[in-house]
Fold this sequence. Notes:
alpha+beta
Amino acid sequence: MSLDITEDQRARQALAESRKRFERLAEATFEAICFIEDGIILDCNQQMETLFEYSREELLGKRIRDLIAPDSREKVRQYIQSGHKGVIEHNDLKRNGEIFPVQARVKRMPWNGKKVRVAAIQDISDRKAGEQAVLNSEERFRVAFNQQFQFMAILSPEGRVLEINDLPVKTQGARVENYLGKFFWEVPAWESLPEWQSRIRKRVER
């Protein structure tokens, strides 16, 4: 009997030490981490409180669904049901109702003697803002590129056409596919201008 008690005490101690190690790791990470069972938050780290602007007491016992933006709930549900172990991007909700983009990873693991889901959540607002800024910049370039009153093209290092603006299409009825991939000096716009072809080739190959 004493042997059984000693082994039980050792198992309890090992479990407690394992939990403490994991809790220290969870607090040290930059991600918000929470433990979920049947959709209910059982535990979380400080970053979870900071990210969602709830106190720990408010988060424990809360449905994780309530932290997900309505437009992302079905997406997250399908992700969980599929057992997918990769990263999912979706929108979450702060306490004040602000919607913000996150990426999350969810996996099942033992915790306090039972299997639960652990979610690691990261705010990607800055990354999304950067991506949008690039898209906006590309759109501004595209508008300016197509509003030019002269034939313009984007070329590869060897002088092949990668893209053309709308001018030859609008004024000459040109087909884009007759330009793409050709050397710039060989495109239809210069076919009747051999002198121009020679000049353009020299400048491009310079």
